[in-house]
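Morning run. Coffee first, then this:
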Amino acid sequence: MVLIDFAARILKHKKFVVITFMTVAIICAIAQFFVSINYNMVDYLPEDAQSTVAMEIMEQEFDGAVPNARVMVNDVSVQEALLFKGQLASIDGVSDVTWLDDAIDIKTPLEMADSEIVESYYKDEKALFSFTIRDGDEVSITDAIYELIGEDNAMSGEALDTANSQQMAGKESLFAAALLVPIIIIILVLSTNSWIEPVFFLTAIGVSVLINLGTNIFIGEISFVTQSVAPILQLAVSLDYAIFLLHSFSGYRKQTSDPEEAMQLAMKKSFPAIAASAATTFFGFIALTFMKFEIGSDLGLNLVKGIVLSFISVMVFLPALTLLLYKWIDKTEHKTLVPSFKQIGRRVVKIRIPSLVIVFLLIVPAFLGQSKTDFIYGIGEQPESTREGSDLIKIEETFGTLTQMVLLVPRGDVVKEGALVQELENLDSVTSVLSYVNVVSPVIPPDYLEAEVTKPFYSENYSRIIVHTNTGNEGDEAFSLVETVQKLAATYYGNDFYSLGESVTLYDIKQTVEKDNVIVNLLTVIAIAVVLIVTFKSISVPIVLLLTIQAAVWINLAVPYFTDSSLVFVGYLIISTVQLAATVDYAILFTESYKEHRKEMSALAAIKKTIDEKIFSIAVSASILSSVGFILWLTSTNPIVSSIGLLLGRGALLAFILVVCFLPAMLLVFDRFIEKTTWKANFYRKEK
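And here it is:
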């Protein structure tokens, strides 16, 4: 009665409801342009992370920051390189330009200097400069640098990654949407009997997506991952709610001539299914908000908000809109464009034993493989086809990989500092070390020298040691060196030191997200299990459903390990939650139908009928979610977004295959056990 009253009130004021939602959507569409987008992954580390604290201290104590960009200039002499250094430093937003003259006295012949140090900066008449680009202005500053260096020279670095992400995010989101909307419309046209019905689906969810984007203005700032992924993911995951409602409305229109009564009945009938579907997704995404690495919690909060808004839009806005324009549905009816799926259940049931055997053979190696995948913790490398990708290769071909680390140690004990610097210089992966004791002199008191000489190395409280390494930014070798440097510093200064730099930041991200992985996956499974227990009033059904979807997740995430490819960890962590939360709906839809049929017929007959009835609906949902994933993968040059897309696309397909082939087999095998562990199962039993 409560639902009927609620539906009646909405439909009574349908014009007001539609106008209100459309007005809010328009306001939010404008407001989204004023939401700040953060492209810096470092900002999402916990405040107590070692590198976060170190960055704050260095900003307080020193003028210079850790270099975040490099430029290689070809065919220059030492004097020409010095002139270029001045030109580079004169660009607004470029600071702390470091070159060979900061490491050695270039007034003496280079042949007499340490060749390893010289070749870190100057080799084959090519000069390599390191410098810092100001946060927030990466695009304009990198454009100015490109104008200075032209096409023949090369640039790379963390700041350039950020600039590219900023430039491409908006364009790629629009491009992805331009490809995706026609594909979704085609899928929906095939799945309905009206040309206009898909427009209703997309309008209802599109309005909720716009409201979600606009209300981010109250949050103040969102991550680039959220900006790129959340709107499309919200559309794909919640489109089912609209499909459930309008399919139910179509069914009731055949039973009653009053469209308003048909809609009231449809709202009442579809509410439990839509609520259960939204609840599993809602609680799955809630788990992301518990991540300490806050890119996950940023995306999780946005998706949770999106699911709530989609649910409200489908249960309030869509019924009102449909009743205002239902005559258009009648006018644009067309014949069914997809052949009947009758008798497919009989064929699927025949392969139930092979399905069980294959999945159980795959599940253990898949579980082990997905935990041993080689992970990337940063943004990943750009493709070689891009200028950034080709420039990086050019730089590394000449100078190898180069990463800078900075140590901040207490100022005052020159002997201790000199001993630490000497040990750092002796490490295999360290190419050079810049500090007061080895660049200036350990015997000259800094107070006797001009501030310009001592400023790069000393603040009031700290001494700064810059370590150049050849390990790259991340990987086993880079992270091992971070641990070695930190242990060395600890032997001299205990816990009274700080380290920072891109490799240190990525090391901290690794430590953070590995802990997040356990917590988020556990919370996701528990939350969805509770929803399933309440929905099915059963202990066994949630186990069967979770095993089915979790098997699809493990197989999906194990593919990179068995194909010997690296996987962006943020993508892995997010998709392990998103795939489970988004695709468990297929299993719920299938099992609810099976349970109803099982009250009237045998297990085998119920499975066949359920497959015949539900395979098309599940295929529609899976094809939309899979299309979203693969389009994100194909259109995004950002490795994190691209990785999430590929995993989502492949995961939706795997979930569809397992729900259609493996789940029926599990329901048949455990039919008697499910009956005994389900409250008021009332399964049909043939009388003897």
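The chain has a mean pLDDT of 85. Good start to the day.
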